[in-house]
Write a structure and sequence with these properties.
Blueprint: H1 54-70, E1 75-78, H2 81-88, E2 100-104, E3 110-114, H3 118-124, E4 132-135, H4 147-157, E5 164-167, H5 176-185, E6 190-193, H6 197-201, H7 207-230, H8 237-250, E7 289-298, E8 301-311, H9 316-333, H10 342-355, E9 365-368, E10 377-382, E11 396-399, E12 403-404, E13 409-410, E14 414-418, E15 423-425, E16 434-436
Parallel strand pairs: 1-5, 3-4, 5-6, 8-16
Antiparallel strand pairs: 1-2, 2-3, 7-8, 9-10, 9-11, 11-14, 12-13, 14-15
Helix pairs in contact: 4-5, 7-8, 9-10
């Protein structure tokens, strides 16, 4: 019998049918035995506000089930926290332990995770408490008692022991050991790769999602404005990054700031020749460039944008690089319209950049939206040669044409939305290399 915080649902899907919430054969042990079971309908009034309507979650589930059917999957076990949140509303810093949302073709999804985190699930998911299942703490970081032992029993209770089950094999939150244990415990089931299945359903944003992206965009604008106001030679980098964090969390225009999926990247001088260094306590100096790759975040929706600041007189090669990047951005944006392919933006950008004598050997953009650490990308569409994904209104991207030179770096990037007629830049931050003497 599964020990958990709550039994899953009281609505059996019928004899022999595989479904979502269903009753256990026996009453489960609660993860928190002192907590009273109560329906969400009986919960005390609080300040928590759901991010989306139940109707929007059900539309997402319908899209996902259609894709599952195309791949012959009876169920999926979704462990990517971005996908978990997108399907259920769950939000919590609990992705360092094993957790998942289980979706079948019947009933509501089931949230499964650490017992103490069932309390957070009750606060955030759209499902009733009966669809929330927790495992006790003896499974946490225990080499002798893997959480997949508990999950396998739950899947058996859901009559999925002989099912074709999709798991996200290639993500940060599902380990080789997890797959090994789950496979061993479900010998009659077929575990197949569902990596990206839910991610791709997230590509086209709803009106509410776009609104959250715009709020995040306003926040990152405010963050860049604050950097330009206070950054000066002699200022310790960690002090500046503390201000960046504070501006991001305070938010903008009355909208609060969430935590970004990536910390601020703010390297100076030779450190800026590398794309992914963060900060230290070194004072900023004259004659150096510093790029700031940062993101505003609101209700887990991420809007990254980069700008570069130079202290002192700008060398000619930086001015040449700025001109080349700005022209190449315009060339790429001309291709950002419905019906074109993702690679069209990359090809136009690279052609213009190469004509000016510069090269970029990495992709120049990727899909963005809801995200959790360690990445703010959706891990689907990329602006690079060979990506033939057709652009559709409602898709959002970080157009990221960074250049890393031999003695510094230059990043001038734009978050964009594909519209019915072309594109919209989500931010209004001036597109240029910023200079302070």
């Amino acid at each position: 019998m599964i020990s958990g915080d709550k039994a899953i649902a009281s609505r059996p899907p019928g004899p022999g049918r595989r479904g979502g919430c269903r009753p256990f054969a026996k009453k489960p042990v609660r993860a928190n035995p002192t907590a009273k079971a109560r329906s969400r309908k009986d919960a005390a009034v609080t300040t928590y506000e759901a991010n989306f309507t139940t109707g929007e979650y059900m539309r997402r589930i319908a899209k996902t089930r259609a894709e599952m059917a195309l791949h012959g999957m009876d169920a999926i076990v979704v462990s990517d926290p971005s996908n978990m949140s997108w399907l259920s509303g769950y939000d919590g810093w609990s992705f360092y332990v094993f957790q998942a949302v289980i979706l079948t073709h019947e009933g509501e999804p089931v949230w499964w995770g650490r017992g103490m985190d069932t309390l957070g699930a009750r606060r955030t998911v759209f499902m009733e408490d009966e669809c929330i299942v927790g495992y006790d703490d003896s499974y946490v970081q225990n080499l002798e008692k893997h959480p997949m032992l508990h999950l396998s029993e739950l899947l058996k209770e859901m009559k999925l022991e002989t099912a074709r089950i999709g798991v996200e094999m290639d993500n940060y939150y599902y380990s080789a050991t997890a797959h090994q244990v789950l496979t061993r415990q479900l010998p009659q089931a077929v575990l197949t790769d569902a990596t990206g299945l839910v991610n791709w359903q997230r590509a086209v944003k709803s009106e509410r999602e776009i609104e959250y992206m715009l709020r995040a965009a306003a926040i990152v604008e405010a963050m860049h404005e604050h950097i330009l106001d206070i950054a000066e030679p002699g200022m310790r980098k960690n002090d500046l990054v503390a201000e960046i964090f504070a501006a991001g969390i305070r938010g903008a225009h009355g909208y609060w700031g969430d935590y970004p999926a990536i910390v601020p990247m703010a390297p100076s001088g030779m450190d800026a020749t590398a794309p992914h260094l963060t900060w230290d306590d070194r004072p900023m100096e004259m004659g150096e460039s510093t790029f700031f790759e940062i993101a505003g975040a609101h209700r887990r929706y991420q809007c990254p944008q980069s700008r570069t600041l130079f202290f002192g007189e700008v060398p000619e090669k930086y001015l040449d690089a700025e001109a080349a990047v700005l022209d190449a951005i315009e060339a790429g944006l001309e291709q950002a319209r419905p019906g074109n392919q993702a690679q069209d933006i990359a090809n136009a950008f690279n052609a213009a950049l190469n004509k000016a004598g510069f090269e970029k050997d990495s992709r120049c953009g990727y899909a963005i939206g809801i995200s959790y650490p360690p990445d703010w990308g959706e891990r689907t569409i990329s602006f690079r040669r060979g990506d033939k994904t057709v652009l559709v209104p409602g898709m959002t991207f970080h157009f990221m044409p960074g250049l890393w030179l031999d003695d510094g770096g230059l990043e001038i990037t734009e978050p964009i939305l594909i519209t019915e007629t072309g594109y919209e830049c989500l931010c209004t931050t001036p597109r240029k290399l910023f200079v302070k003497s």
